[in-house]
Protein backbone atom coordinates (compact mmCIF):
# COMPACT_ATOMS: atom_id res chain seq x y z
CA UNK A 1 0.00 0.00 0.00
CA UNK A 2 1.23 3.48 -0.78
CA UNK A 3 0.33 6.75 0.91
CA UNK A 4 1.96 9.58 -1.00
CA UNK A 5 5.65 8.77 -1.04
CA UNK A 6 5.34 6.39 1.93
CA UNK A 7 5.03 2.67 1.20
CA UNK A 8 3.96 0.17 3.85
CA UNK A 9 4.55 -3.57 4.02
CA UNK A 10 5.21 -6.36 6.48
CA UNK A 11 8.77 -6.79 7.67
CA UNK A 12 10.83 -9.73 6.45
CA UNK A 13 13.87 -11.38 8.06
CA UNK A 14 16.26 -9.37 5.87
CA UNK A 15 14.92 -6.21 7.59
CA UNK A 16 16.01 -7.28 11.07
CA UNK A 17 19.37 -5.45 11.25
CA UNK A 18 17.75 -2.24 10.01
CA UNK A 19 14.80 -2.64 12.40
CA UNK A 20 17.07 -3.06 15.43
CA UNK A 21 19.20 -0.07 14.42
CA UNK A 22 16.09 2.04 13.74
CA UNK A 23 14.56 1.24 17.13
CA UNK A 24 17.85 2.04 18.88
CA UNK A 25 17.91 5.41 17.12
CA UNK A 26 14.28 6.59 17.24
CA UNK A 27 12.37 4.23 19.55
CA UNK A 28 11.27 4.73 23.13
CA UNK A 29 14.09 2.92 24.86
CA UNK A 30 14.06 4.31 28.42
CA UNK A 31 14.04 1.41 30.85
CA UNK A 32 13.63 -1.33 28.24
CA UNK A 33 16.25 -3.97 27.56
CA UNK A 34 17.86 -3.46 24.14
CA UNK A 35 16.36 -5.19 21.13
CA UNK A 36 18.36 -8.15 19.86
CA UNK A 37 18.29 -9.38 16.26
CA UNK A 38 17.69 -13.01 17.22
CA UNK A 39 14.55 -12.07 19.16
CA UNK A 40 13.13 -10.06 16.26
CA UNK A 41 13.94 -12.96 13.92
CA UNK A 42 12.11 -15.31 16.29
CA UNK A 43 9.08 -13.00 16.29
CA UNK A 44 8.99 -12.98 12.48
CA UNK A 45 9.28 -16.78 12.38
CA UNK A 46 6.42 -17.10 14.88
CA UNK A 47 4.22 -14.46 13.26
CA UNK A 48 5.42 -13.22 9.85
CA UNK A 49 2.78 -10.45 9.78
CA UNK A 50 3.52 -9.02 13.24
CA UNK A 51 5.86 -6.21 12.20
CA UNK A 52 4.68 -3.54 9.79
CA UNK A 53 7.11 -1.04 8.30
CA UNK A 54 6.83 2.18 6.34
CA UNK A 55 9.47 3.19 3.84
CA UNK A 56 10.34 6.20 1.72
CA UNK A 57 12.52 5.40 -1.30
CA UNK A 58 13.42 2.04 0.25
CA UNK A 59 14.50 3.63 3.57
CA UNK A 60 12.81 2.49 6.78
CA UNK A 61 10.95 5.45 8.35
CA UNK A 62 8.38 3.89 10.71
CA UNK A 63 7.39 0.64 12.40
CA UNK A 64 4.72 -0.95 14.54
CA UNK A 65 4.57 -4.42 16.06
CA UNK A 66 1.05 -5.81 16.23
CA UNK A 67 1.13 -9.00 18.24
CA UNK A 68 -1.71 -11.45 18.63
CA UNK A 69 -1.54 -14.44 20.95
CA UNK A 70 -4.99 -15.77 20.06
CA UNK A 71 -6.59 -13.90 22.95
CA UNK A 72 -5.06 -10.45 23.29
CA UNK A 73 -3.87 -7.84 20.83
CA UNK A 74 -0.77 -5.85 21.76
CA UNK A 75 0.89 -2.95 19.99
CA UNK A 76 4.59 -2.24 20.48
CA UNK A 77 7.47 -0.36 18.90
CA UNK A 78 5.47 2.33 17.15
CA UNK A 79 8.35 4.50 16.01
CA UNK A 80 8.53 7.18 13.32
CA UNK A 81 11.62 8.95 12.02
CA UNK A 82 11.60 12.48 13.48
CA UNK A 83 11.53 14.14 10.05
CA UNK A 84 8.24 12.39 9.19
CA UNK A 85 6.37 12.89 12.44
CA UNK A 86 3.11 14.78 12.15
CA UNK A 87 2.46 13.61 8.58
CA UNK A 88 0.05 10.76 9.40
CA UNK A 89 2.52 7.90 9.02
CA UNK A 90 1.98 6.61 12.57
CA UNK A 91 -1.79 6.81 12.21
CA UNK A 92 -1.64 4.93 8.90
CA UNK A 93 0.48 2.13 10.43
CA UNK A 94 -1.84 1.98 13.44
CA UNK A 95 -4.88 1.66 11.15
CA UNK A 96 -3.20 -1.23 9.32
CA UNK A 97 -2.23 -2.89 12.61
CA UNK A 98 -5.70 -2.53 14.11
CA UNK A 99 -7.28 -3.89 10.91
CA UNK A 100 -4.97 -6.89 11.04
CA UNK A 101 -5.68 -7.57 14.70
CA UNK A 102 -9.42 -7.04 14.31
CA UNK A 103 -9.36 -9.56 11.44
CA UNK A 104 -7.73 -12.08 13.78
CA UNK A 105 -10.53 -11.64 16.33
CA UNK A 106 -9.29 -8.84 18.57
CA UNK A 107 -11.96 -6.97 20.50
CA UNK A 108 -9.60 -4.65 22.36
CA UNK A 109 -6.11 -3.29 21.70
CA UNK A 110 -3.37 -2.70 24.24
CA UNK A 111 -0.57 -0.26 23.43
CA UNK A 112 2.66 -0.56 25.38
CA UNK A 113 4.04 2.95 25.99
CA UNK A 114 6.61 4.00 28.57
CA UNK A 115 5.19 6.53 31.02
CA UNK A 116 8.23 8.77 30.49
CA UNK A 117 7.51 8.98 26.74
CA UNK A 118 5.50 12.21 26.79
CA UNK A 119 5.34 12.53 23.00
CA UNK A 120 4.11 8.93 22.75
CA UNK A 121 1.54 9.16 25.54
CA UNK A 122 0.13 12.36 24.01
CA UNK A 123 -0.10 10.72 20.59
CA UNK A 124 -1.81 7.57 21.85
CA UNK A 125 -4.36 9.73 23.69
CA UNK A 126 -4.99 11.67 20.48
CA UNK A 127 -6.01 8.46 18.69
CA UNK A 128 -8.40 7.30 21.42
CA UNK A 129 -6.24 5.21 23.75
CA UNK A 130 -6.32 5.78 27.51
CA UNK A 131 -4.04 4.52 30.26
CA UNK A 132 -5.61 1.82 32.37
CA UNK A 133 -4.93 3.10 35.88
CA UNK A 134 -6.04 -0.02 37.71
CA UNK A 135 -3.33 -2.14 36.06
CA UNK A 136 0.41 -2.20 36.42
CA UNK A 137 2.78 -4.16 34.26
CA UNK A 138 4.85 -6.64 36.24
CA UNK A 139 8.01 -8.03 34.65
CA UNK A 140 10.68 -10.58 35.46
CA UNK A 141 13.68 -11.58 33.39
CA UNK A 142 13.43 -15.13 32.09
Automatic annotation (TrEMBL):
<feature type="domain" description="N-acetyltransferase">
    <location>
        <begin position="6"/>
        <end position="142"/>
    </location>
</feature>
<dbReference type="GO" id="GO:0016747">
    <property type="term" value="F:acyltransferase activity, transferring groups other than amino-acyl groups"/>
</dbReference>
<keyword id="KW-0012">Acyltransferase</keyword>
<keyword id="KW-0808">Transferase</keyword>
<dbReference type="Pfam" id="PF00583">
    <property type="entry name" value="Acetyltransf_1"/>
</dbReference>
<dbReference type="InterPro" id="IPR000182">
    <property type="entry name" value="GNAT_dom"/>
</dbReference>
<protein>
    <submittedName>
        <fullName>Unannotated protein</fullName>
    </submittedName>
</protein>
<dbReference type="InterPro" id="IPR016181">
    <property type="entry name" value="Acyl_CoA_acyltransferase"/>
</dbReference>
<dbReference type="InterPro" id="IPR050832">
    <property type="entry name" value="Bact_Acetyltransf"/>
</dbReference>
Amino acid sequence: MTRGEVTTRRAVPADVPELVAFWARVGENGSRPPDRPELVERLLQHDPDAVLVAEVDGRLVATIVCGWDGWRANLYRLAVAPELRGRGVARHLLDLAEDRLRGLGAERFCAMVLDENKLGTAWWRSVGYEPQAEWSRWVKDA
